[in-house]
Amino acid sequence: MTDTEFLLWVRGPAFEIATIIFTLGVVLRILEIVFLGRKANLAEARGSATAGGIRTIITRSVPESGTFKRSTFVIVAGYLFHIGLFVTIFLFAPHILTFESVLGFSWPALPTAIVDATAVVTVITLLVVLIHRMQDPVMRFLSGFQDYLVWLVTFLPLVTGYIAFHRVGPAPQMLIAIHILSVEALMVLFPFTKLMHAFTLFMSRWYNGAISGYRGVNS
Amino acid sequence: MTGATLERGINALKEQIDAPVAAFFSSCVHCGMCSEACLFFTETGEPKYTPIHKLEPMRKIWYQEYTLWGRLGKMLGLSKPVTDAELTDWETLVYDSCTMCGRCSMVCPVGNDITYMIRKMREGMAASGHAPPGLIGATQRAVTIGSPMGVKLPALQAQINHVEKETGIPVPVDVEGAEYMCLLSSMEIMNFPEYIGAISRIFKHAGVSWTLSSEAFEATNSGIQIGVSEIAAELVQRIVTAAEKLKVKAVISPECGHAYMAIRWEGPNLVGRPFSFKVLHILEVLDDLREQGRLKLSGKEAQRLTYHDPCQVSRRGGVVQQPRNLMDMVAENFVEMPDNGTMNWCCGAGGGVSSNERADDLRLKAFNRKKEQLDAIQVEGLVSACSNCRIHLEDGLEEYHMDLPVLSLTETIAEHLAEN
Amino acid sequence: MKKDQTLGEVLRSRKISRRGFLKFCAATASLMALPPSMIPAIARALENARRPSVIWLSFQECTGCTESLTRSHAPTVEGLIFESISLDYHHTLQAASGEAAEAAREAAMQENWGEYLLVVDGSIPAGGAGFSTIAGISNMDMLLETAAGAAAIIAVGSCAAFGGIPAAKPNPTGALSVAELLQGYADQLPDTVNATASELKSKPIINVPGCPPIPVVITGVLTHFLTFGTIPELDALSRPKVFYGNSIHDRCYRRPFYDRGQFAETFDDEGAKKGWCLYKLGCKGPTTFNACATAKWNDGTSFPIESGHPCLGCSEPDFWDAGGFYKALSTPTEDISRAAVYAVAAGAAAGVALGAANRAKKSKAAKNHQKVSIDDLEK
Amino acid sequence: MTHSFNIETDAGLTHNVQPLMHEIRHAVQALLDTGETTVIDLRSLPLAPGELEVIEATLGRGEVNAVLEAMGPSEISETVFPGVWLVRHFNADKQVMGVFVEITRMPSLLLSQNEDIADGLRQLDEKLETMF
After folding, report:
1. pLDDT digit string (tens) for C290-308?
2. What does pTM read for this prediction?
3. C residues 97-116 closer than 8 Å to B (CB)
4. Do residue A97 and residue C334 have CB atoms under 8 angstroms apart?
5. What domains, with CATH codes, occur in chain C?
6. Fold entry, domain D17-131
7. ipTM of the complex
8. Min Cα–Cα distance to chain C from B126, Å
9. How far, in Å, are A215, C211, D94 from residue C67 at the CA level?
């Protein structure tokens, strides 16, 4: 099994399996949630639940000033690495090609150097966030094995991707293969961990906003 | 009538878990931000008071019963089931250190409505016999006597006579066809009867026809605090029956937080049908009168005042702007606290905590949050619209040696009615 | 040209001045991609280099490598190289054929046993002797016999180095590279091979992959062996690091465009005209190690990327089955979208089933719900 | 409809000329300071199309232009910058065998070699015998 064959397998069958598990898992989890349903509200509405739901999906991204003062680190670091992940994953030219081959459409990319710099910032932020999770009393109290596992499968693609891009080390095919494998690990774990929040957060924010909107409260 | 059992509790949780709960548990990323919104954590620093952690047993039920991976784990015996001992440990988290004030639900970055879930989890806790003794007593009194504080009709009659002597205005009782049927909380009847005088003077001034009902004068509902929908439904049904018997157009929930939540928002869902009458908080009625110009006031309160938003009225109830309009009418120097309106900090006593003596020390420790909020603006008076908040604000201020009068907004308005 | 003459003697007999010899050494240094500072060392080594005998065996090959090699040398400089090595057997280049040719090969082998250089191009069919034979001898046997006495084996071209196009799926002839053959078949030696299995397995092999390899690289490796008589430093795939040490991507003059994110989207769009990076058109530069970007082809005229075509990665194993020449490196090599669509359908079906199961469980819980009265609040 | 286009090369976009000039500059400095000579093999650089011509144009031609006829011509010329020499080797077919930039007082190839001088001496002796 030469490096090329390994890379071929990783870019081919392994990626297919990972995509199947990811897609199937995500759709399944979402339906599992939706099918539980919700009782209709018989009370006389004051505001619109739908408008409230949509509004909260947007406004909840902007933390209220008091909250920002109290959780500044979590908010700033959180946004930093989420934006970093977004840029690195979705605005990097080679990645866009991967998405295009699966989704059929593509979009413009950022210059490679900018994505590279963003990746560095994201890696550092993720490390800082890990340290914070381990030493902040509340975070340490709340965190279990899954939290650290999810951190790892989010961190590895960034590091292996950076190494593969800069070809630190002898065999570039192996480096790219390891990078893609780490992404596949992320995709396989995705539907069974809190990574699902990437999808379910819209549902949660919707329900939150709808419940409050019905009562005329902007939540 | 087999008494509370773990199975009944777990069964209740299985019933309560719905799509929002599943979405919320799927979205939590353990970021800890909800702890910074909860006064029981900020003032104690104990991680166990992190709001989302208070739901751990229910999360396990959701995971093991309603997700593929969870069910597999359970089948293979890998998952740890919820035990009675575990629920005992969780009693102080779900009841003593949570007033269901909803501040964590406003803060969660992924939008989890943690309060919505606490309300549901209490259904399981109560059914498995893990409700706090104080709250069980209050609920039993509310059902048997009609009021959690044991107030019976004769006690109300005595206060009514006293008010009528003082205001010279008759207090209508059981008047069929009146426009509004007013409810009172036991706290008001026992500790703040001036509220009855206030509404009778205001309604006379504004020419509003109203009545009390001898069969259903109690507004509070321990059922939604302890988390037993059947009991809550029974308490609400009394009000519905009386209101429909008196053929009133609307029922007014008094200066009380969770009473408004119980009748206005949970009521129809508890009894299972929309009401034939409207439900309004007293502040909504007063603001309507103000708007219609039927509320003429003279003179304003000179001292520097602020307004404390009762959580169930404002953040969870939606009555936010009305008190501001009324405060502008009646206060010369009204100043807002930091984190006001839907982001106000709880007085620490709602959601059944006040009936739970075991939680007293924790409640008073948590009150430091309200102290810091007030210290920031140095006011001479604190106005609110919930008698339970009011009594426990007074209790807290006394504990922290703060000399600050706590006023009722309705009473303050009544004191400034212009003679017509 | 007598066999025992040193190259120095050959040059002098050809009336080539010392200065001419130094020019030859400078060109050779550049040829071997060695730093100019090495020229004196090369001169000293070349002066008294013994002229190795070279046997060139061609098996399943398209003669592209020989073509590349022969075109690479014009009379004078490289010619000298080939005059200085005694190419004792090359069935395309030599006049003799049939038994006579084989007799020449055996003679050369006997005479220089253990000294001669074996150059192989083309892969060796292990699927059956009948696939490819020369003068009635199967490729496999011929290779094993000749390898026995070789000082070193140079596998020229991706066929000899990695199996090449003949080895592409489904590899009907069971084509193997030289290394694979020696490792795999050294244990079942025909009696005509007088070397032990372990000797064969430990024969030093230099892979000079490429389809074909750059002419200058072939001559460079031969010259290195001629000059120093040793194996050049090899990488993990036993390719000379001097030529295969850097990836095309790292030495590509279009790299700034890659870094700025300027890519040609199609073969005739504005980007292609401006000479932008060809990553999106399937360039395998990042994972391919070769000297094309510096040594270039046709005497420094150009190389595939410079003339607007993405690199195929021809010096890497399995480049022929590496998921499409025009599919970018970062695109999957299977039809993922079809799989994704099926997965969504399967997910939906499973979701509906599990959703129904959830609802059933909820209604069962509702069914055996017992009313909680004020007397049921305590255990 | 086949249309052909040649790939434009925008000198500004390629990146080898400037760094090479800097490298030559430092080599000249070293030559002055310590007499150290440097040889740069242009064939080992990933030159973009047209870049070799830009380099040669930048270096220009100086006072000395020599041609060595040995197995094909070799042009050895000093650039406009004294001490910086451009050495180009061709084979008989005028195919480029090597292009070097030598930073030295004089490229070693121009020096007559001892062996050649010895041969020359022998030929001189033979000529003396036959001519006189």
Report:
1. 989 888 887 777 899 988 9
2. 0.86
3. none
4. no
5. 7-243 (3.40.50.700), 246-333 (4.10.480.10), 336-378 (no CATH)
6. Ribosomal Protein S8; Chain: A, domain 1 (3.30.1370)
7. 0.84
8. 6
9. 83, 11, 20
